[in-house]
Amino acid sequence: MNSKKAKKKNHVSFRMNMLFFVVFLLFSLLILRLGVIQIVYGEDAKREIERTEDVTVSTSVPRGKIYDRNYNLVVDNEPRRAITYMIPNKFDQKETLKVAERLAQLIDKDTEKITERDKVDFWIMKNPKEALARVTKEEQEKLKGKDDELYKLQRERVTEQDLASLTADDLEVLAIYRELTSGYAMTQQMIKNEDVSLEEFARVSENLPMLPGIDTTTDWERKYAYDETLRSILGGVTDGLPLEKLDYYMSRGYSRNDRVGKSYIELQYEDVLRGQKEKVKNVTRQGKVLETKVLSEGERGKDLILTLNMDLQKEVDKILEEEIRKTKARGGTGLLDRAFVVLMDPRTGEILTMSGKQYAYDEEEKRYKFVDFAAGNFNTSYVVGSSVKGATILTGYMTGVNHPGKTMVDEPLHIKGTPTKSSHFNRSGYVSINDYMALVRSSNVYMYKTAIAIGEGQYRRGQSLAINKEKAFRVMREHFSQFGLGIRTGIDLPGEQIGFRGDIEQANAGNVLDFAIGQYDSYTPLQMAQYVSTIANGGYRVQPHVVKEIRDPADGKEPVGPVAKEVEPKVLNRVNASEEWVKRVQRGFRGVFTEPRGTGRSFAGEPYSPAGKTGTAETVDRGRKVWNLSLVAYAPYENPEIAMAVVVPSAYYVGSTPNNVNMDIGKRVLRAYFDLKSGNKEEE
Fold this sequence. Notes:
Strand content: 15-25%
Largest sheet: 7 strands, mixed
Number of helices: 24
CATH architecture of the largest domain: 3-Layer(aba) Sandwich
């Protein structure tokens, strides 16, 4: 009995010893493992916890300024207070929400951009347990591992009543939270840069330690010294990179929040105006910014000196508005709603004025008013009529179908299947006329017969016109293009149109004749200015441009900085005409304004010695037959320094009393130019 007890006791002791041994062994292994971690990997773990990262980012600088040719400031940068957020590498929803809640107590934030989806997501974030309770246990089990589908189901079960429970304070927090989460890691996100009060700016500045990532800084807004004058040409800037060009700009070092030029001058000269960004190194630890160091100072963009004279521009704008009102009041068409003027130096291509005014209905103000439509000078086109006859005469010379001094009979042309075609001054008779008087009196028939000869045709009264219309169109268009008609002028602005080219296949023989007097193809006012400049300067087609110089930013001692680049005149081509031929057309243009029977004889008494050509084109506008009026001119005749194109679409109805609004505008504009030049402009 005792022997059995002893054996049992020994057996229990053995098992206890084995248990203690196993426990000891496990503890030993645990201690060994802890030692290895502490001794071998401890320093690495510590370094990982304390590891910082250097992230270099670029911050925007003000855009370059824009001046007119007399160094009057046209577009400036107006500083404005701004609140920004540097988005961390690692997104933490709770921390971000805390920042939004703290910031909402310090600033007022507009909530207009909040969407219905934003509200739903925000309600779920604020009420996670209740949102999850809307999904049954069975549905949760079924969607296990499918978080996106589960969240979608939660969204669907958020009610209008739930959203209505969001207070005004909640929505303000949401508006801020929306901005905090809409950018990309380590980019600066604009939280508020409009109407930031001094009090808001101060409150946020004082509480920056409690607002990780938030900073107070200065943003810039474009300021236009001349209000709406030339706004359609100056262009505008975006509030961030446009989505359709996102990859393009990102590949060139832009940030998503950068402003870029979105139209015209701002767009065309984006590379010049954008400036050199300031490079900043952010020292981060575990996604949080610890320190910021400036690596290189930024420099605002270079400045543009325009060829435009803003004083003259304002005066021409005023003239257009007054003449449009006057013409409408004395019987102009109800369709007359715009007019254009381009003033260009025919020697250099510098645009001194590009004026366009449109009388349009303003939906906000519920009234008609004049708006800037300067861009219409190169992105809209019109049939212009007889003002292109200088190109027709020179085309006749260049193709050999006529020559200086050649006479033709001006007579009504009776072509089978086509209405009678005649000149305005001769509806029924027979008048012998040469090329000079054809320009002076604006003979349509002289131009018709020139076009017939170019198309190897022959006119026989009452019969169909036998003509090679394809050749006539091709040859005349090729020669017109030498003057800039029907092709791009090359102006340094985006969006230039070439005008409308009538379909040759659909054209009849009569349309060939219409082309010769400017009543088939359409041209832009800028093309007309380049055309008359080419005649004025002796046959050289000069590229028009609106930027005269590019200058480095001023150092504060001078109003403008040193010249970085000067835009030199560029001759695109010379017309294939002799000097004698060009001078012959110049004399014809002078006769238009000085001869007793000249169509522009009202210019005869002007002291600046002008030359030019008038134009009247019958066309259709919104179902009504109307006359477009045009005028091209240059002055002084002996040594041209200014060339002008005037276009007034739908000036009066066919059959109504004609008006001379094109010449009224032209005379006032040229007087304004020479008065400003000599300083004789009367005080208003």
